[in-house]
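Re: the request from the purification team.
They wanted to know what the chain is likely to look like in 3D before they choose a buffer screen. I agreed to run a prediction and write the result into the notebook, where they can find it.
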Amino acid sequence: MTEQHDPNKHEFQIYLPGLLKVLAESLYSTKKVAIRELIQNAHDSCVRRRVETKEASYKPRIDVFIDEERNTVTIRDTGSGLTKEDVRTYLSTIGRSYTRQLGDNLSIFNPDEASQLIGQFGMGFLSAFLVASEVVLTTRSYKEGSPTLQWRSNGDVHYELEEIADGSIGTSVELHIKANASFMLNEGILSDTIAQYADFLPIPVYLNGEFYPVNAQ
């Protein structure tokens, strides 16, 4: 039996660049929250590595670097990293979140660990396009044999994904800062922003390789 076609029923046509812009600008009230969301993603990646690997010697760490000459801000973590399937499923599909799925799984067996997950990896990543004309993510999963991957997008309908020379386990997100967000290249402003959003995090956040972390915890 064939399904009857309803001539009055139509599919939405989605213009992805416009959708990304609207989502990013409507979900977040200020450009500074891009730093909050990306640091929260880095934090959750570190929690994921601790939960899934149970490495006794593992020391979680988040670093933020400013490069004024290149107009970039980079957030780097020593977390779990992403496989190619993770990138395609959670990073490049709007609305899906590995953090949410991991939290749902943990809530049954380990609610204390689940309560430590604070970000919305996937949706939160959209905030990067508030401040960046291009985002370059470099990642390597802790899973044995995983390659180092580089994902890049300028917020249009396409993204690029390629394998590059081996890197360390974890993820770095390089933001090519827009002119209207150039205040993020100011070390004082960025330090205050990190302190504002990350003071409660138990994982240290360092700015430009300083000896002491910016966040109080």
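For the purification team: Strands lie at 62-67, 72-77, 132-140, 148-153, 160-164, 170-177, 205-207.
Please add any questions underneath this entry.
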